[in-house]
Design the sequence.
């Protein structure tokens, strides 16, 4: 059984027991989160929502909140001596999928 959920502007295919990194939720470690934007659920047959599946939720437990690896952004314009180096670390929340309620 799997589900497709939407959170943080992205879509994730999840199954029970999966550990995924989603955009930062602002929830402490050990707390439970419920995702109610379930786009599709598969339990033998595939149920596709319009736009979401009615009454379907996915519950997950927050493992940790952290920053991802640094991404280097380098801007450069030739012949002018212009260059700019910048770094960025995106915040994420790591969650473990506990139950898919369909």
Sequence:
């Amino acid at each position: 059984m799997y589900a497709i959920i939407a959170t943080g502007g992205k879509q994730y295919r999840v199954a029970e027991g999966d550990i995924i990194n989603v955009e930062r939720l602002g929830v402490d470690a050990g707390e439970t989160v419920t995702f109610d934007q379930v786009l599709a659920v598969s339990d033998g047959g595939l149920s596709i929502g319009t736009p979401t599946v009615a009454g379907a939720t996915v519950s997950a437990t927050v493992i940790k909140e952290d920053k991802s690896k640094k991404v280097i952004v380098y801007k450069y314009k030739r012949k002018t001596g212009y260059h700019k180096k910048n770094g960025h670390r995106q915040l994420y929340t790591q969650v473990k999928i506990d139950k898919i309620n369909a």
Remarks:
- The beta strands are 2-7, 10-15, 19-23, 32-35, 38-43, 45-48, 57-67, 71-77, 82-88, 91-101.
- The longest strand covers residues 57-67.
- The mean pLDDT is 95.
